[in-house]
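Data deposition worksheet. Section B asks for the primary sequence of the deposited chain exactly as it was used as input, without tags or linkers unless they were present during the calculation. Section C holds the resulting structure in token form. Section D is free text for depositor observations; keep each observation to a single sentence. Incomplete worksheets are returned to the depositor.
Section A, Depositor: J.P.
Section B:
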Amino acid sequence: MAYATKQDLIDRYSEEELAERTNRDGGDTVVDAVVEAALQSADSLIDLHLRGRYRVPLTGTIPREIVDIACPIARHALWTGQVSEAVRDAYDDAIKSLEKIASGKVQLDIEAPAAAERGIQFYSEPSPITPADLKGYIG
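Section C:
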């Protein structure tokens, strides 16, 4: 499941911009395969940042903050050649938001996995000393 959808991109940036960025032949239709590739690229980058704090890929209802991050990252991926300043700034802001989430400065409203689920486990071996061994030491 993608963190953002084609419709999210259209709602934010317009169908015309998506067609311009995805249809390399200059047509006025959006090329879904190009949009999907950009969305997958955004998902991968998001997962890379979040994997130390959350179980990825995120499932269930995706927090709005993640959709807000995924869209400018995917949009940036759709630009070839010279990227506009507005697109670059939005991408940079999205990366900064990801870094804040990854560092724990900002928390998503989802359950983080328990320590054991993140791969941290503690084990304790039983003591080789029995109460009988301590007889004479304990008064």
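Section D:
Residues 6-112 form one domain.
The chain has one domain: 6-112.
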